[in-house]
Amino acid sequence: MPTRLVSVVLLLACALAGSATAGDAPPRKVEERILRETLAALSAREAATRLRALRDLGGLVSIDPSVGLAALPRLKAILRLRGPVERARVLELLVRIPHEDARTLWLARLDPEVESHHVPLLAAVRATRQLPADRELLRMLLTAVRAKRATPARRALLLEALGPLESPAVELLLTRPRAGEHWVEASARALALGRRISVRSVPPLLALLEHEQLAPRIHAWESLVRLTHRAFLADAKRWKTWWGERARSKLPAKPSPPKAGERYAAPRPTHVPHYYDLPIPRPGSNVVFCLDASQSMYGDGIDQARRELGRTLMDMPSTHAFEIIVFNEKVMPWAGRLVPAHPVLKHRAIERLAQIEPTSYTNLYGAVEMAFRYAGRGAQRLDEAPVKLDAIFLLSDGAPNRGQYRNDERIVKHIGRMSRRDIPVNTIGAGEEVFPLLRAIANATGGSFVDAFE
Question: What is the pTM for the complete model shown?
């Protein structure tokens, strides 16, 4: 059968399988020829062919889950050799194959020390939504989350993956903090509770609104918004008052869509993260932080910069996305792409900030130019697809003395061209020497300037 017809056959087979009832004949078996062609396509040279084969294999697994074992060697090869989108599809598939080898492979990838890219990592977390009542999957996750050697980030991902599973043990894990719980685990519990569409999720989320760390409070807030369709400020007292006034027997219904005359009015966000008093106002914002780590930032300068950026990251809901570009003479992107403000990714970014050691000179233009590359506007095209950037934040304490452009006028001119005034560059001055340049950059791009020490 020609490869292009495989998908059509799979759709028909899935439809037949889905229409069967408990009293019908035994489940259909996958035709050997279709399986062979699908497996061969998993090793094709073209990524588009492999992605179609992964989709087709998903259809085959829906008909006969045992066929996933035949594909396991090729799925392992994709995890080892291919890009993040293909790895994500494989991880979504592995959890549906009811065999220990497949699920052990999936579980091993549910670890930021094993899988560095956020797309497959978060796909592995979301995959459990497909199987809320799978007892074997539940057993494996409970065993892993209780392992003494699990890192906080690993445990956080496991907790979030447990969220959709139906079990009193899961509810107990998510509602009661572990002794010595790290903030990243508390944040993951908040997100997991938000994915359990139950009135019982609300009280533990209200408790997390009073957590001593900012990130769990923010993720508890976003889960409460998701469950209740209310958008109060991230204030525990306000939420508790509202909840206490309700019957609390069921979650509120989703409100009706806005009337025709209201649909074009942008909703005002109730929680707005800030960076040095500069707001990040749009829900779901994509932002890049450029941080000066030249020698002159040594000491109090870099310490304050770490604190401020760390606090901003903790304050961002997981619907936001960010990247950090550290620069001195070199330009050093942290992730090489924008990543969601997920608790585990925040944790990794804050760990990176703690390792920064100021040294060398100042390549200010190179850092900003790299930031614009994420929007497809820099000197070179990146591997990742361009995104809609909402803002760039640039912190520096000294005049640029390295990079393609060092003259203030030329720096402002070229940054302004890249900005087109629809991507503002907000600037933070940590040294008076560079204030005029930073003000000029902000003015040329529609951004704002602030003094870091005011």
Answer: 0.90
